[in-house]
């Protein structure tokens, strides 16, 4: 089905208002429901899931240090919108078909409020998972200003729940960011970019089987999912009208498996000012920005000299990344029309310096961990991705001590790039280095074949998701804390995460 581009205006998700607020706590209630929404004017309204009646969900904006409590409630129907594969861990027939649990991605939060994949709950909390501890989550937001997002994290069906619509922005603000005089208010726009496919009747298409179907299964997990249309804030190929001035965009790759390589067809620079974990030391002007699933980039684009121009935000990333098929590239994201009159003189700035970024020293690390990214096949002949050769249910092997610093070597033995996300903490990317995969598989020895490559300019800040490329060792450094308890780390390609590429870890005293 061919849909016209740039016929619908970009929607901006509303900012959620708290139910109550006093000097101690801010209280939100967020309800998940099924409803119909127009994703493109040439499509029938599409049945989706969302938070507070919208897909994507409303933006939650909080202050650094603000104590926020959120009651996430599930009012979804008992039947899933999409086909569930009951052979996947956590999604067997012994659990309810529709379950949810919410993770604020990138948040430093107590384990009971982190959205552990087995802390799920059903409609009205009638049934809960084995790790469910509380109905009301607490977020202390002891973090600098940054771009986070909230999304579903249920074991075995995360890919389906997020694809159905369960995602939204969670922005932390602080005084320092306000002093920088960045574009703000209507000139600051969050963009959640996702890919989807549709059936003729306008309903969401999600494959029931991989390209080589598994005959003995009605529904089988697919290795990755790539949709043939791009949606921004829940609209297919929208347009945005802007004034000839600077705008701040929060870019979020909210896709299941698709990477993006964003660039503007006007050839102008995109100024990145922030990574997953907040502002960088100084902005970098770039022609293109690569975002893996779950990564964010905080950017400023200046339209001052582009009055009357239509600028297209393009994508050049193959799927799967980095060596996928050219025919899987969907090269258009949205159109920006510099057609609005300038309402007032633009006094906002692209600052030359934002904040110090103290580099963590490897000497401070008390432990190194060598962790592999592996590909195997299961009993049905399907590919299955593992972390360190272990599935979700294997005994826990990572027990970092609270307050300790570790260096993790992510040793990618597969053909795909994997965005690796670690809950609770932010890390710094140290470097990447090519190595001989065959020798490693035989002898478990890293034999480097190339020089150390420093992190990409766009990664020189605090991160919670890192792209681990094939045939490379990616090294990251982090300090664990301030909380102790049970968390997870995983690949953020949702089809991988849902089928074993996720591991629990425990921060101990």
Query: In which range does the helix fraction lie?
Result: under 10%
Indicate the CATH class of the largest domain. Mainly Beta
Number of domain modules: 3
Largest sheet: 8 strands, mixed
Q: Radius of gyration from the CA trace?
A: 22 Å
Gap between N and C termini: 56 Å
Segments where pLDDT lies below 50 for 5+ residues?
none
> Could you tell me the number of beta strands?
31
Whole-number mean pLDDT: 97
Structural class: mainly beta
CATH H level of the largest domain: which superfamily? Cupredoxins -  blue copper proteins
Q: What is the 3D shape?
A: globular
As a percent range, the share of strand residues is 35-45%
| Total DSSP helices | 4
Q: Say what the CATH topology of the largest domain is.
A: Immunoglobulin-like
Per CATH, the architecture of the largest domain is Sandwich
Condensed summary:
Helix content is 5%, strand content 37%. With 509 residues, it is mostly beta strands. GO terms for molecular function: copper ion binding; oxidoreductase activity.
Question: Care to describe what's here?
Answer:
- Belongs to the multicopper oxidase family.
- Pfam families: Cu-oxidase, Cu-oxidase_2, Cu-oxidase_3.
- This protein has helices spanning 158-164, 175-179, 437-443, 494-497; strands at residues 20-21, 26-37, 46-51, 60-63, 68-74, 102-105, 136-139, 146-152, 167-173, 188-198, 204-205, 229-232, 235-236, 239-241, 246-253, 260-264, 270-275, 278-286, 288-291, 296-302, 310-315, 332-337, 367-377, 383-387, 405-412, 418-422, 427-434, 465-468, 472-479, 485-491, 502-507.
- The protein folds into three domains: 20-174, Cupredoxins -  blue copper proteins (Immunoglobulin-like, Sandwich); 185-337, Immunoglobulin-like; 362-507, Cupredoxins -  blue copper proteins (Immunoglobulin-like), CATH 2.60.40.420.
- The strands form six sheets. Strands 10, 11, 12, 13, 15, 17, 18 and 20 form an eight-stranded mixed sheet that branches. Strands 1, 2, 3, 5 and 7 form a five-stranded mixed sheet that branches.
- The chain is mainly beta.
- A hairpin with an 8-residue loop joins strand 2 (26-37) and strand 3.
- 45% of the residues are buried.
- The mean pLDDT is 97.
- The longest helix is centred in the first third of the chain and has 7 residues, at 158-164.
């Amino acid at each position: 089905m061919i849909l016209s581009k740039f016929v619908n205006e970009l929607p901006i998700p509303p900012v959620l208002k708290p139910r109550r607020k006093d000097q101690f706590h801010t209280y939100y209630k967020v309800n998940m429901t099924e409803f119909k929404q127009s994703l493109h004017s040439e499509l029938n309204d599409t049945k989706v899931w969302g938070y507070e009646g919208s897909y994507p969900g409303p933006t939650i904006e909080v202050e650094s240090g603000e104590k926020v409590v959120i009651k996430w409630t599930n009012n979804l129907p008992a039947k899933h919108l999409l086909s569930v594969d009951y052979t996947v861990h956590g999604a067997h027939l012994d659990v309810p078909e529709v379950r949810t649990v919410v993770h604020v991605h990138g948040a430093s939060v107590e384990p009971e409020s982190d959205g552990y994949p087995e802390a799920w709950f059903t409609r009205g909390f009638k049934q809960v998972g084995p790790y469910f501890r509380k109905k009301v989550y607490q977020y202390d937001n002891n973090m600098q200003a940054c771009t986070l997002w909230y999304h579903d994290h249920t074991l075995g069906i995360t890919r389906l729940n997020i694809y159905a619509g369960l995602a939204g922005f969670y922005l932390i603000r602080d005084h320092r960011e306000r002093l920088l005089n960045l574009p703000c208010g209507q000139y600051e726009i969050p963009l959640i970019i996702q890919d989807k496919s549709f059936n003729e009747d306008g309903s969401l298409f999600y494959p029931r089987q991989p390209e080589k179907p598994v005959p003995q299964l009605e529904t089988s997990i697919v290795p990755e999912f790539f949709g043939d249309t791009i949606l921004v804030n829940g609209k297919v190929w929208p347009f945005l009208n802007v004034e000839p001035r600077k705008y701040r965009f929060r870019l979020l790759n909210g896709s299941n498996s698709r990477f993006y390589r964003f660039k503007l067809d006007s050839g102008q620079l995109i100024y990145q000012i922030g990574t997953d974990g907040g502002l960088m030391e100084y902005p970098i002007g770039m022609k293109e920005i690569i975002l893996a699933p779950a990564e964010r980039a905080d950017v400023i684009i200046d339209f001052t000299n582009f009055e009357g121009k239509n600028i297209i935000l393009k994508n050049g990333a193959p799927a799967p990344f980095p060596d996928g098929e050219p025919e899987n590239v969907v090269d258009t994201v949205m159109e920006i029309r510099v057609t609005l009159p300038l309402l007032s003189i633009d006094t906002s700035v692209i600052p030359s310096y934002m904040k110090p970024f103290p580099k963590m020293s490897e000497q401070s690390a008390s432990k190194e961990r060598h962790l592999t990214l592996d590909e195997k096949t299961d009993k049905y002949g399907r590919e299955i991705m593992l972390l360190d050769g272990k599935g979700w249910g294997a005994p826990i092997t990572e027990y970092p001590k609270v307050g300790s610093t570790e260096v993790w070597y992510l040793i990618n033995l597969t053909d795909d790039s994997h965005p690796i996300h670690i809950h609770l903490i932010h890390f710094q990317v140290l470097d990447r280095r090519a190595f001989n995969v065959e020798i490693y598989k035989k002898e478990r020895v890293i034999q480097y074949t190339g020089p150390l490559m420093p992190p990409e300019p766009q990664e020189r800040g605090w991160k919670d998701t890192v792209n681990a490329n094939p045939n490379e060792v990616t090294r990251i450094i982090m300090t664990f804390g301030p909380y102790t308890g049970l968390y997870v780390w995983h690949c953020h390609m949702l089809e991988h995460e849902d089928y074993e590429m996720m591991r629990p870890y425990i921060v101990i005293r």
